[in-house]
Amino acid sequence: MTDVEQRVAAVEARLESAFALDARLKAIEGDLRKVKGGSSLRDWLQTLGPYVGGLVVLFVGYWIKDSVTLALEREKLNLAYAQQMPALIKAFDESESDQVADRNAVALAMYGRYAISPLLERLELGGDVLPFAAARGLRIIGFQDSAAACPTFRRVINDHTRRFKWLTHKALIRLIGQSECADARADLESYRAALAQLGADDTKLRAFAQRYSTADGFDAETVAALTSEIDRALAIIHQVKT
Amino acid sequence: MTRFRLRQFLACVVVTLGGVGSAHAALKNCDNLSDNPGDYKVVLDDFAFATPAAQANSELAALRETLQFNFTGQLDVLRASARQLDRNLQVPMRLVFCAGRQPSLDGSDFTAARAEQLSDERVVVEMWGKLDLSANAGGTPSPSARIGYVIPPVQHYVDEDDAPPVHVLAYPKTGAVGSIAELENLPELPAFALVGLGTKAAKANRYDLAVWAFTRAEAGIADAKLAGANPRLEALLAYVKRAACETRTSARKDPSYKGPLTLVPPQACGGVEL
Fold first, then answer.
1. Is there a domain that residue B199 lies in?
2. Residue ranges of chain A whose CB lies within 8 Å of a chain B CB
3. Helix runs in chain B, H state only
4. Radius of gyration of chain A measured on its C-alpha atoms
5. What is the pLDDT of residues A186-219, one digit of tens each?
6. B114–A96: do the CB atoms touch at under 8 Å?
7. CA angle, B114 as apex, A225 and B116 as ends, to 5°?
8. Quick check: A126 and B121 CB within 8 A?
9. Hey, which residues 202-231 in chain B have their CB within 8 Å of chain A?
10. Nearest CA in chain A to B201
11. Pair B107, B126: CB distance under 8 Å
12. Which among A80, A115, A144 is the end of a domain?
């Protein structure tokens, strides 16, 4: 055998060995794939990781920007209301007739929850025209936005800090019924129970009336008026629930 | 066509202006109503004048001042009278003057809701009116008036058929004789105030005060009836009598009451329920 033939034989032997190695490697890879059972979450995460990170940053950025924009818009709205409402409140206070007072109360009520406090304060005024119109305004707000109105109405009837007259309590109890404030049921029931304890005992009446801005004029007639107002409100709430 | 439209426009303007002119005076809020919340109140509104001539008349202007002064005196008399009867019988009643408030003369402003609010503010009677100058028998102008009274507690608690709460009376009632005295004193005012007071006192279980007020009111309304037949006053008088009787009965039934009404023999009342 010549040198050339020897070298060709060596190359052929190595080539066969390479084919054998390739076949072995394929067999090993096939076995390995069987053992692994397809691509894992880790593979997916490794693949999509850079994209997911980018998306999260994008969404968080958008949310922050959106909430900041909303807060800014809300502040702008508050400022606009703060600028517009005093003129309406002044017009309400200076109403020369019941019709004008009603119109101004309705206009104030259009500001929704923002008008609750000024109208509530107007309930505290004396007389039969302005408090009456204020109650109408609050009734509109209670109908349109009971979620905002009811908690405030409940706070008033539960208030024991001598901030409100008994007449304001009575008006608010009526508004609670008209606004269908179902959550106020327990408050009304406990108010009613407390009134039932009083009877016509002057000492008890006086002690109970300490929760109002003035205890003067709180008597058995007042107790009866409040009790029947509570009954009416509870009847409405019960009717709504059933 | 153009002339027709012009006429239509003018008609609209006339109707609008006429409406404005005839619209009743405004019901202004009485801001000082919540002062002294424990007191019963007699509300005196701003008297209107029927005509510009009446407004310019010094006699009518003086009459307006005199009325306010006399009402204060009448309330003082009531308070003293109650004290005379019983040292413990306090009548916390005061006159409240509502400047600029001029309800419609027929009393239509006093709705049920308004009556409730006024009653809650312890108003026992509200009075308003229109002063005028009318020619008397001699042809000389003399003061005349139409005065309206509303008794909010009666309107709130009692059916209108049982007790009419609104009364509009013309003065002078009996011709020229005593007309000025009548106009200056308006004798019905204390009677109506007492009806309102009695109704509220009965609701508050203040039996002695209620019976005293109803009894005094009975005499006042009976006096007012002497001027001539008035079915509304008669109905009110009937209510007052029944209410006094009902109050006495309630007092006797109330175990917490130990006053003099327990000594009054029981009697059948019938009719209105307080």
1. yes
2. 95-98, 100-101, 125-132, 165, 167, 170, 199-201, 214, 216-217, 219-222, 224-225
3. 2-22, 52-56, 58-85, 112-120, 152-157, 179-185, 188-203, 207-225, 231-253
4. 39
5. 999 999 999 999 977 889 999 999 999 999 989 9
6. no
7. 15
8. yes
9. 203-206
10. A221
11. no
12. A144
What residues are paired with B147 via a beta bridge?
A: B129, B169
Cis upstream peptide for B260 (omega within 30°): no
**Which of B34, B36, B122, B207 is the mutation pick for testing A, counting most A CBs within 10 A?**
B34
Domain range for B120: 26-256
Query: Are both A160 and A181 inside the same structural domain?
Result: yes
Which amino acid belongs to residue A7?
R
Q: How far apart are CA A64 and CA A227, in angstroms?
A: 50
Q: Which domain holds residue A131?
A: 60-144
Judging contacts by C-beta atoms under 8 Å, the chain B residues touching residue A170 are 120
Same domain, A164 and A231: yes
- In B229-267, which positions are buried (b, 16+ CB within 10 angstroms) versus exposed (e)? ebeebeebbebbbbbbbbbbbbbeeeeebeeebeeeeee
- Give B203-237 pLDDT, tens digit per residue: 999 999 999 999 999 988 888 777 777 899 999 99
Distance CA B223, CA B233 (A): 11
**What does pTM read for this prediction?**
0.78
Look at A128 and B31 and tell me if their CB atoms are within 8 Å.
Answer: no
Average pLDDT over residues B71-81: 76
Going from the C-alpha of B230 to that of each of A76, B124, B169, B180, B241, the distances in angstroms are 64, 22, 10, 21, 17
Residues A123 and A156 placed together within one structural domain of the fold:
no
CATH of the domain at A90: 1.25.10.10
Distance from CA of A149 to the nearest CA of B (A): 23
**ipTM for this model:** 0.80
